[in-house]
Amino acid sequence: MKKALLTLLAWFAFSAVANADDDVLYRSSLIVTGDREETRVPAIPQGFELAAQKLTGNPDIAQNPAFASLAVGSRGMVWSYTYHDRMFGIPIHDEQGTRDRPFDLTFQFDRKRMNDAMAAMGELPWLGARPKLAVVIEVTDLARSYVLAADGPHGSDLRSSFEDASARFAMPIVFARETDLAGITPEKIDTMSLEVLTGLKSKLRADAILVGHLDWETREPGWHAIWRLPLSAHSPIWETAGVNFDAAFRHAVGGAAKRLRPKE
């Protein structure tokens, strides 16, 4: 009897942890001005879109014909919301007040209502562990070309931006260290053999490798990014141009999620 009770308690504990992890997939955050209803309510459809992208792994879900009508009614899907003052610790100026301060607004959407909304669009929640991406990128800016490394002297802002994109789609990422990239120069990114790619993936304990080019184009102007998953069956290249690197990395991780998510 005691053993059965312990087993039951352990099952409940595991279930609670699993549900807590899945709850992240039904959550989204965005920046609003002030912590009042007049800025919160108009932000709900955008929060719904972000949560739907994360939940399904489909960055293009807003293009679904049924999306617009569901977004209009998404206020009824909000289970809770919280605010975080982005200027926490900075005194409020007399002429400012809280109305003009930026806040991170986080929505937690109701699981069942979100699942029903996804079903209405023919989409499925992508629950469970997401594949870890090893990221290998050649970056060419106005000053230099380099391969972005976890411990490299260049690109700390790029790594931080990629982490934001990772959280946006709940897709874990890992960068190789400079020692792991020995001999892989920017001009050799596209000529890495399958043996080298497979060895790097294993060393980084990743499930897939995302290889890309991020080049600054003065004529567009903006970043031109090209991405591929060379070790997966989803080999087509996808690209974007004339964007900042935050958008380029969202395009990278979102594109990988769309290609690696379960199809059924």
CATH class of the largest domain: Alpha Beta
The average pLDDT score comes to 88
Helix content percent band: 25-40%
Radius of gyration: 21 Å
What CATH architecture of the largest domain would you give? Answer: 3-Layer(aba) Sandwich
Helices and strands, in order, run as HEHHEEHEEHEHEEEH
- Give the overall shape, derived from the CA principal axes: globular
From the 3D structure, determine the CATH topology of the largest domain: Rossmann fold
**Strand portion, in percent?**
15-25%
**N→C terminal distance:** 41 Å
Structural class: alpha+beta
Low-pLDDT segments, ≥5 res = 1-20
Number of distinct beta strands: 9
Number of domains: 2
Tell me the number of helical segments per DSSP (H or I, 4 or more residues long). 7
**Biggest sheet overview:** 6 strands, mixed
Describe this structure in words.
The chain has two domains: 24-120; 133-260, 3-Layer(aba) Sandwich (Rossmann fold). Helix content is 37%, strand content 23%. It is built from seven helices and nine strands. The chain has helices at residues 2-23, 37-56, 67-72, 111-120, 156-168, 194-203, 245-260, and strands spanning 27-33, 78-85, 102-109, 133-140, 145-147, 173-175, 208-217, 222-228, 238-243. Strands 4, 5, 6, 7, 8 and 9 form a six-stranded mixed beta sheet that branches. A hairpin with a 4-residue loop joins strand 4 (133-140) and strand 5 (145-147). The longest helix has 22 residues, at 2-23.
Topology:
Elements: H1 2-23, E1 27-33, H2 37-56, H3 67-72, E2 78-85, E3 102-109, H4 111-120, E4 133-140, E5 145-147, H5 156-168, E6 173-175, H6 194-203, E7 208-217, E8 222-228, E9 238-243, H7 245-260
Parallel strand pairs: 4-6, 4-7
Antiparallel strand pairs: 1-3, 2-3, 4-5, 7-8, 8-9
Helix pairs in contact: 5-7
